[in-house]
């Protein structure tokens, strides 16, 4: 069959395990895109490697999918977004992907505060390689594939994100699709680098952090009367960031989900570029007409003359 | 006429500034220049030097000797006394300083140079090192730097410690007198180089005092320039070429000797464009967290339709390997500018090398079309930067543009018209579909699929084997179809790109030197001598796809084929043999981190033709 004869696109059959938390994340993402009325053609879903990496291929919304390398989804996404800031960029990465092999990019994405959303599929294991411990699995936990209890302490993605400069930091739960969808909509509407760390049971390899484990522990920050994570004045930044970091360490009988921190006052990387390059938002790199009748439209005369001796 | 001038000094004490001032003064007097900077991987204190070759004809390389050596401190004398041919300018007040007192000198070099003097019955002092040069016919000119410093301190009313800084410019003033050139070009260069009025006065005075102190040895006359000339280093040549070629996104992680290219691009910011009444564009330069980010950001940007590139050196390129594979699998037009330096590992970060050719050709696991080109000089580097961007988009695959530190950090003074002309842009099969979805990887006869920008229609990419839609599939028939489709692009490129464009041929003769990269310049500077011996030169400019038919034809019936390269294995020749079945008969190689000089080309070729199968060159401090 010639592809060019095909008029419509068909999503790929999903090969995730039955009961996988990824289904909830996928569903929430599709709903968020639809409910916000985003033009699917201008949405780019970027992913890394792992079970989460296949997410763009499984989407029922006609988006663009860029399935990249292990750990590097944020780097690709950065190039896409900066070259064309008109695109809406959503990154999906696993916990091993974003916080293990890709931790460098995770930190630096915060420093840049690019207008993108990162969704971390956080299940505590490297499922695609049969269940090794991921960077978010807590010390001493022995999931079923581990020969010994985990010897490493877990990283706290929310605290690292806040310390790195993310301006929207939230945690969702894969089995509460509605709540997760609402978080995603807020993240997509936020102007700046957003993280949603999604607690996601892995029914196949994580027999500790199961649906039952989470169902009885998670509670919603939105339902807490005194919880106000939004920075409204520059002098509130430190206080709110510290409160959010404190909150992010709450883990045990009760596990908070919802918005931990949001700062809308910080300029984005794109804003910083636009200070030096006029027309950046209207005429970004991707849309510049660099060629006319087979010739370059770039005028070199002045640049060459600066080299005259 | 060709004169080699060399100035040295501790890193951070104005060696570059003085060499630049000298170069400007000489260029303003109408001379062509090739200048090369040699420096340690250090912040301050180690011996760096700058060699400037000036000529009334275009010049493309350095030589392994100094007609004029200029020293304002002892180490330069110790490092270079055995290279001086005609004049050495030094500080007589330092005559009694001996090698052990020069702490910045590496023990290996100190021992080697002391031995050289000892063999002649001389002691390791400045005085005796000068004697060594004089015995070989050089003229020693003592420049009384201290009196100049004292005079500048008095007249400009600054402390002596501040006036000390004028020594390097004094050395340049003396150099111009030695050449017989007027001083006004230097005074103009000083006015342009320094912003602070005090420094302008100090340095101008020092230059004049030194100029009046020394005799003329040459009698050069200012020459007329028929058309404007430019001053071009390799990093800037590539940056300008990329701009002319429509580059709009560059990512990089700081590394020697590549970073200056990106820094130049970042400074450009806004670009004037000839569309919609001078609509202004802009190039985005992102300093990344590492080279993994650099290559993958560039690929991401390329997917949106922006012309994108990254620029690096060996260690960075090693980190990019996986990303280049993704770009190959996903048919991303991305350019990697690769400045080779001393390797492996950190190697010699500030020295040159040509040992990464086979790595560039084979980077990343698996098979995919990699286009690899190698520039031979600054003008080629400019045009090749445009070419690389066009090849990347036409064949939708990573293009590796090889250069060396020897080009990056050297500069030429040459006609501006060399960089002007028609800047062709070939965007290949870039299309604007009407549909919501687009199958990005359609199977075509030439292997090249129509390409859309992200945002124009829904498309999918995956590093996994994929079907025409970009969706993952492991079906064996599809695997074979897509594998062949990708590889077919290299065959298409091989068919479409004229082989004559992939090879430069200089002269004719029964003997052939086969080379690539920077060595082209050294060959051009001795081409007449080579021709007199019946030696022609072949410079390979594209290694993948390799110009095998033309190469076979060119090499047929040669009495000798001499591989001339800056590495141990003769990698370019190995590729030649692999592609053509022709073996070199002789090897002239150099891998000490210094560039091959024009006189070394002659030495190497002569020794080879006398029967030495493998000549290893070693000039350069």
Task: Give me a quick take on this structure.
The complex is a heterodimer of chains A (309) and B (621). Chain A has 309 residues and is an alpha/beta fold. Chain A has helices at 22-35, 55-58, 73-83, 95-101, 103-112, 157-164, 177-189, 211-215, 237-248, 269-274, 301-305; strands spanning 43-47, 64-67, 88-94, 117-122, 125-126, 132-133, 168-173, 194-199, 218-220, 230-231, 255-263, 291-292, 295-296.
What do you see in this structure?
The complex is a heterodimer of chains A (309) and B (621). Chain A contains eleven helices and 13 strands. Chain A is of the alpha/beta class. Chain A has one domain: Thiamin diphosphate (ThDP)-binding fold, Pyr/PP domains (Rossmann fold), CATH 3.40.50.970. In chain A, strands 1, 2, 3, 4, 7, 8, 9, 10 and 11 form a nine-stranded mixed sheet that branches. Chain A has a two-stranded antiparallel ribbon with strand order 5-6. Chain A has a two-stranded antiparallel sheet with strand order 12-13. Chain B has 621 residues and is an alpha/beta fold. In chain B, the strands form four sheets. An eight-stranded mixed sheet of chain B has the order 6-5-4-1-3-2-17-7, with helices on both faces. In chain B, strands 8, 11, 12, 13, 14, 15, 16 and 22 form an eight-stranded mixed sheet that branches. At the A-B interface, β2, α3, α5, β12 and β13 of A face α1, β7, α10, β8 and β9 of B. β2 of chain A pairs parallel with β18 of chain B, so a sheet runs across the interface.
